[in-house]
Structures are given as C-alpha cells and as structure tokens.
Amino acid sequence: MSNILIIKGPELYKNKYISSLREKTEHSIKTLNFTTINNQVPTEDNNPDLVLVDLETNINLPQLIHYFKGKKVKIAVSASDTSEASIKDLFMLNIQGYLFHKMEISEVNDAFDYILKGLTYVHPNLSTILLKDYRKMMEINRPDDLLSQREWEILELITKAHTNKQMADELHISDSTVKNHVNSILKKFNVSDRTNAVLKAIKNNWVSL
Known about the structure:
Residues 140-205 form the HTH luxR-type domain. The chain is α/β, with parallel strands linked by helices.
C-alpha cells in the first residue's frame, strides 16, 4: 500500500469524491486543503509516495515540485484548463502524472497505479494536445537560403546512408556531380565529414528520419 497526498482546492475533490476514492483504492489517501497551507509548501510529515496537486489551488507549483522531488516523491497534477499554452507549460515541469479533472474514480486509481510503478501517466484529453505540439516540432523547418534544392536532396540521401554511386543513380546525375554537392554541403555546414553534416541537420530539424 502506498501513501498518496492530495492537495486540493475548495471545489475539486470534494469530501464525497474523496470518500469514494478511498473506498475504491488500496492506497492510503490524505488530503490538504489549499486554504490550510497558505500557498506554502506543506510542512507536516505526510511521508507520501505520490502527491497529486489540484491546479485550481494556484499554489506555487515550481516550489512544491522542488520540495517533493528532493524527497524522491512522485508528483502529479490535475488540470481543468486544456488550452494548448497551459498544457505545454505543464509538460515542461517534467513530473510523473498529468490528470484531468473530469476523470472517473476508476481512471484516477489506474493513474495512481501507473505512476507508482515508475511510469508517466498522461490523460488522453491532454495527450492529444501534446501529440499535436510534438508533430509541429517534427515538421521539417529548413532555411531555404542555406542549401540549393539539389543539395537538400543529397543531404536527405546522405542521412539514409546512401553512397555517392547510389545517390547518382537515384538522382540521374554523375558521381562527380554528387561529390561536388557533398563538398558544398560540408563547406556550408562548416563541418569536416558527412556524419557531422547529418548530426547538424538532425539537431536543427532540417531532415526527416
């Protein structure tokens, strides 16, 4: 059995909900009302394994995270605001759980179990926003004036470990032309070899993998 501390606001996780949660979980659940901690880090010795913070409390979350991470405590938040900006900020916190206010009790219990196993839980309502942001990050973003169109094509093939002959055959150009393009890419990237050219392109999201 694990100890779970819920830091809750005045509206969310009301007494009836907490009682039902306690009845349907094998874990020990304690609560702290936001009004009783005065926006400060809890000082009483709860020895929790997991802390769930209701974001409606407007508590100093970075301070709270710093405090509990120092004690090797897992941290999760429960959010009601699913705006993209808000969710992106939450994911930057690098904590173990991202729950949604309208979750069923069975879902909350499953999330607790998942987090306590050392995994990261993200509710589907929030993960769709994260995935959308991830896809944007994965979009190729090339500076058009850095390489010519043919050089970008060569670079893509270098990334796929093509030899000069393979590139020449695929692009229907001569080996010497491929070699000239490769040398031009290395010069423009200010690198000494193909490997470093590929690493630079990947780092800057200039090529697809």
